[in-house]
Amino acid sequence: MPELVIRNGVVDGERRDILCRDGLVAMVEPPGSIVTTDAEVIDANGFVVVGAAAEPHAHLDKVLTADAVPNPGGDLFGAISAWRETYGDRNEREITHRAEQVIRRSIAAGITAIRTHVDCGPGIELRAIEALIALRERWAPLIDIEICALVAPQTLGEGQGAAYARLRDAITLGVDLVGGVPYAEASPRAATAGLLEQAAGAGLGVDFHTDETLDPTVLSLVDLAELAIDFPFPVAASHCCSLAMQDPARQADVAAMVADAGVHVVALPQTNLFLQARGHAQAPVRGITAIGALRAAGATVSAGADNVQDPFNTMGRVDPCEIASLLVTAGHVDAGDSWSLVAGAARATLGLGPAGPVVGAMADLVALRGDTLRGAVADGAAERIVIRRGAVVSRTSVDIASNHPLLA
Question: Which of 70, 217, 339, 384 lies at a 20 to 30 A Cα distance from 224?
Fold first, then answer.
């Protein structure tokens, strides 16, 4: 692997040169300090260099279907119903076509790893799982893709046998994690325990859609935290919207349980702002989990985009800058800290090692046009240089042309 030198990038507010060697960051020095004869050199003057983003919660099987699968009410249950009605239209070829478009956009946006939940249930069976497994292998040179088998909420009672059989088939095909929607079942605790048992038997971690509701009486996150204490593999809980509906003392108590159990929480501001509070005519709540309480308790909180132009979020887009910006404006995360949720914390949720312009870290980097990271995130910095394992994998430039001298 050839060496790469990034010159004149802004790192933590200072101009720096960065040497990437063998997929790692080997040196971070003042400009002009790194001398090499064989390295590829890129000029990052005018760019901020940070660790690349990771997407901790995607649905690549659903992307880019907003026009084909309308959801007039715009709420979660309308989206679920609309999506399931189109299972007959889903096949490996069209899933692959849509998903690859978003994978390309993700790489260009500065994302070098994705965890995607993929439906695995009645009607869709294993078609989407098979499509995404093929894409995981095809795109492995450019991006890490994790597949979480999303089991339909029918894991109790008469549906349990079929649901578990289908899950075991998905595991045999080679999924990376077990997912599900335990909070939507008749007994969330029993559903959580059953899915944990299936995952443990396969040696896999779990990532559950958890409490994607504003109903304060729904709080299956507590069940997951209690049961995760004895679970030997990674555990993540995505959404956790109802935690924000608890009083501050209850939030703190649950957050402490989550932190003690090592459960990672994935906040999804873009989609939850779209879906939640549709019935709240007065002072609608934001629907984002209690990020502050969770982080104060020491829990790992990451953030992702979730849905990309589908019935669950017709405006969803692939841009970690947008998610970081929403964390600031809607989640009140400090502007200087927001990138860490879509980058370092997201990588930790995916089980990946640290990446960034730090000696010894993985050389998964993104250079964003801007003088400061806050400014680059706020601007959405269309110009980006994306580096994975020490090699440039994408470069986006912007050329603005005008005949007017004020815009020249």
Answer: 339
> Residues 97-103: what's their mean pLDDT?
98
Q: Enumerate residues 6+ apart whose C-beta is below 8 A from 349.
A: 54, 56, 115, 236, 264, 266, 300, 302
Contact 332, 393 (CB under 8 A): no
Q: How far apart are CA 187 and CA 130, in angstroms?
A: 30
Whole-number Cα distances in Å, 112 to 96, 97, 350, 366: 19, 20, 11, 9
Dihedral pair phi/psi, residue 91, rounded to 5°: -145, 165
SS3 label, residue 22: coil
**In which band, very low, low, confident or very high, does the pLDDT at 407 lie, cut at 50, 70 and 90?**
confident
| Euclidean distance between CA atoms 188 and 231, whole angstroms | 17
As a whole number, mean pLDDT of residues 141-147 equals 98
Strands 384-388 and 391-396 turn out to be antiparallel
Block residue for tokens 């240089």: 385
Count of Cβ atoms closer than 10 Å to residue 13 Cβ:
10
* Nearest C-alpha neighbor of 5 from the set 406, 393, 396, 363: 363
Q: What is the pLDDT of residues 211-241, one digit of tens each?
A: 999 999 999 999 999 999 999 999 999 999 9
Count CB atoms within 10 A of the CB of residue 50.
Answer: 25
- Residue 403 has phi, psi (to 5 degrees) of -90, -5
Alpha helices (runs of H) in 139-220, residue ranges in sequence order: 160-173, 188-202
Average pLDDT on 31-47 reads 93
Cβ–Cβ under 8 Å, residues 176 and 206: no
* pLDDT-above-70 percentage for the chain: 100
- Residue 141: is its pLDDT beyond 80? yes
267-316: per-residue pLDDT in tens? 999 999 999 999 888 888 999 999 999 999 999 999 999 999 999 999 99
Question: Looking at residue 361, what is its pLDDT?
Answer: 98
pLDDT over 90 at 349, yes or no: yes
